[in-house]
Specification:
globular; Ribosomal Protein S5, domain 2; about 325 residues; eight-stranded mixed beta sheet; transferase; binds adenosine-5'-triphosphate; Alpha-Beta Plaits; kinase
Length: about 325
């Protein structure tokens, strides 16, 4: 009986794009990307509990503002759970509780992490043993960043970003994230990028940017990685949210090795030389942006995984 099954909690990471090359818009409306994702230690925890009907609650962790998160059937976590149930022929509704640390609409793929964690939690709860590849195939139907939320670590993403190849890395990289209260819509940023490029814009020329990122990761070399970070969406994000230009400059002035827009923004990612220098950068930035907008994190970290299986009656 489903009601006697324990709840399962799964944890999935946010991501930062170390490289984001955007090709022309495709016939299906998506853009071809060449990106390098790194999973970082800002997490979403999703608990799946057997229930009489499908349901969802969201809790803010670490000061996240969750007011923009849909609580209905459009929520990515709920969509993920229902998709898995449908494909596996499971008729056991769950209540999902999402503990959100990742900024909403922040360019760190928080919604995708929720979907990844929901897939892993429900797969364990229903004892389906779907496997990582099977879950990633389902995840790609929900969103381009969901497969990476499942795989985690560091990976090159192509296609819409859903085709992943792991990248060898050495050691950890230390980040400071500067959150922005505004939030930016990903489709709007891509549209602005297209508008700025104009019609007739071709694919990005093959270049050495990917090689430079991979070499820096292999060597565990934060300074080389700082020099290689780039994001084709940065200009468009800064045009739509002009305050980002100031935030990027403030991050560099505070001693970061590099400052980049994270994905489609508006979160700004600051790469630092060490955990200690991340703390120094935070101390410099507190008077400028306020403590509440700053998060430290390191990467790479693993993809979505089960945290705990609570005994019946546990919460
Ligand atoms: P990405 O970097 O993948 O483009 P993002 O980090 O910028 O995404 P998200 O927080 O993942 O943005 O969510 C973008 C939008 O998706 C939200 O504004 C919200 O309307 C919708 N959404 C659906 N499900 C969720 C969820 N579980 N958490 C957050 N947003 C969700």
């Amino acid at each position: 009986m489903s009601d006697h099954r324990p709840a399962v909690t799964a944890r999935a990471p946010a991501k930062v794009n170390l490289l984001l090359q955007v090709g022309p818009v495709r016939d299906d409306g998506f853009h071809d990307l060449v990106t390098v994702f790194q999973a970082v230690s800002v997490h979403e925890d999703v608990t799946a509990t057997p229930a009489a009907d499908w349901g969802l609650t969201v809790e803010a962790a670490g000061g996240a503002d969750v007011s923009g998160v849909p609580l209905d059937g459009s929520n990515l976590a709920l969509r993920a759970a229902r998709l898995l149930a449908e494909r596996a022929g499971v008729d056991e509704p769950v209540h999902l509780h999402v503990r959100k640390e990742v900024p909403v609409a922040g360019g760190m793929a928080g919604g995708s992490a929720d979907a990844a964690a929901a897939l892993v939690a429900c797969d364990a709860l229903w004892q389906l043993r779907t496997g990582l590849d099977g879950l990633a195939t389902l995840g790609a139907e929900l969103g381009s960043d969901v497969p990476f939320g499942l795989h985690g670590r560091t990976a090159v993403g192509t296609g819409r970003g859903e085709q992943l190849v792991p990248v060898l890395t050495r050691g950890s990289f230390h980040w400071v994230f500067v959150l922005d209260p505004a939030g930016l819509s990903t489709p709007r940023v891509f549209a602005e990028c297209d508008r700025r490029r104009g019609p007739g814009w071709g694919p990005p020329p093959a270049d050495v940017r990917l090689e430079a990122v991979e070499a820096a990761l292999r060597g565990g070399d934060a300074e080389a990685l700082a020099a290689a970070l780039s994001n084709d969406l940065a200009e468009a994000a800064c045009a739509l949210a002009p305050q980002l230009t100031r935030t990027l400059a403030a991050g560099r002035a505070a001693g970061a090795l590099a400052a980049v827009v994270s994905g489609s923004g508006p979160t700004v990612a600051l790469l630092t030389a060490s955990a200690a220098s991340a703390q120094d950068v935070v101390a410099e930035l507190v008077p400028v942006v306020g403590q509440g907008r700053l998060r430290t994190a390191s990467g790479p970290v693993p993809g979505a995984r089960v945290l705990e299986a609570l005994a019946p009656g546990g919460q």
